[in-house]
Amino acid sequence: RDIQMISCGADKSIYFRSAQRASDGLHFVRTHHVAEKTTLYDMDIDITQKYVAVACQDRNVRVYNTMNGKQKKCYKGSQGDEGSLLKVHVDPSGTFLATSCSDKSISVIDFYSGECIAKMFGHSEIVTGMKFTYDCRHLITVSGD
Q: SUPFAM superfamilies of this UniProt entry (predicted)?
């Protein structure tokens, strides 16, 4: 099985790399590069490992194909008009994703349609981490509060 590394950052780039064996070990070789117009804060891969979801400063979630680096979808990751998306997490079934925004909101979104299923407020500080439980019934969030 091939090893792939995908990274994103404040430089507004997503790099797709594949591991290649050489006489002196494994080396990661860039296969695709995507330059966006917005800062990229977080990413998560779906259960099939075909798609990577990226949380963007412009409050959108962009979904890319992991094999060719092409954008498949772009949808609103926060229902508000303020702030930036900071975190994104795809549930273990690959059906939903959760986002956290710097306006302290959390959204649960249908991974395929982009429809917002739920929006929540409750933390007094930004959400710094989140994870769905394995049975996909609960979303655990962590905040500075």
A: Quinoprotein alcohol dehydrogenase-like
